[in-house]
Amino acid sequence: MNEQVNQSLSYRPDIDGLRAIAVLAVVFYHYGIGGLSGGFVGVDIFFVISGYLITGIIQKEIERGSFTFSGFYERRIRRIFPALFAMLLATLVVGAWVLLPSDLVRLGNGTMATLLFASNVLFWRQSGYFDTSSEYNPLLHTWSLAVEEQFYIGLPVLLILLHRYATKWLKPALVVFAIVSFALCVWIQQLRPSATFFLSPFRAWELLLGGWLAVGVIPPIYGARTRLAVSAAALVMVLWALWWIKAGPAFPGWQAALPVIATAALLHAGAQGSSPVQRLLSLKPLVFVGL
After folding, report:
1. In this predicted model, what pLDDT tens digit does every residue of 204-224 receive, in sequence order?
2. Rounded CA separation 185/256 (Å)
3. What is the pLDDT of residues 162-172, one digit of tens each?
């Protein structure tokens, strides 16, 4: 477990390269570039990366006895708020100039929900992500930030309780929570597709799968050839998902498992040692975009 955590805290340029793929996929999807019908799954890729890194940091600090909620959330605030406030200010300024009064009211509601990390709930109540009306929501992209921050309210509490009272159940607990979240996602997808897209209980399994890697749930991958095979197959699956998955009420559901598992495989293989795939993801242009 300690080895996994240490590796998760070490800088890995291939993770920034993977971030770049996620970011570019989402941008290209929304601009209709490159025929990436599933480019929106870049968010799912990012969820796994985030779960891997943040769980590793929390886990390591708890083991050292240095974790504090104030320190954790202070780092989150310093990392997120400057860019978030700049984006919201620019959006409000432009909105005040170009929007009708009724649209400006909706923008104000969206801004308040974003500041409270609850925009995913607001947008779920208003419309689906793939609805035509959502294309005119300038803050639609903040739903994923809300999901992350809601997840990181509960995760530290869960990890602390498990470390304090049931250390041996740490890994099984994360496995069970992820399986339950995924099962709910697949089940509710048929009934309330907008809820499974926006709400954190149905997305938690994606972040938790990254957390599995951070606490050592998945056994190491031994052998350079095996790591290369796993990495190559995972990268192909990620890229294939960007073209194969289609926008609509069938997502996330079981389809999200494809890019999520592939991303986890790339992260896990890279943690054991380098390969041509990791070196490809570590190319400077990709790392630049990821950073």
Report:
1. 999 999 999 999 999 999 889
2. 10
3. 999 998 999 99
